[in-house]
Design goal:
mainly alpha, 41% helix, 2 helices
Amino acid sequence: MMEEPQQPSPEKDSALRRLVPPPALCGFLLLLALVFTGSYAAGAAVDPVAPDMQRSGTSGGGGGMDMGDMGNMGTDGSGG
């Protein structure tokens, strides 16, 4: 005698549906991961945008920007 497969009860089926996220959310998260991965790969493949702006190696204070080549730029009070 063959036993017929039992169908899950409605309570078990609804509990399972509550535990599994909706397919739209899974698709969105997958798309988000692909976009971030693609942007990281593109950023790693190209050269730096501003190669002269490098970290200074010091851990404290300052912005690390060298303003020495800017001349006086009005620091003498002449305004120009």
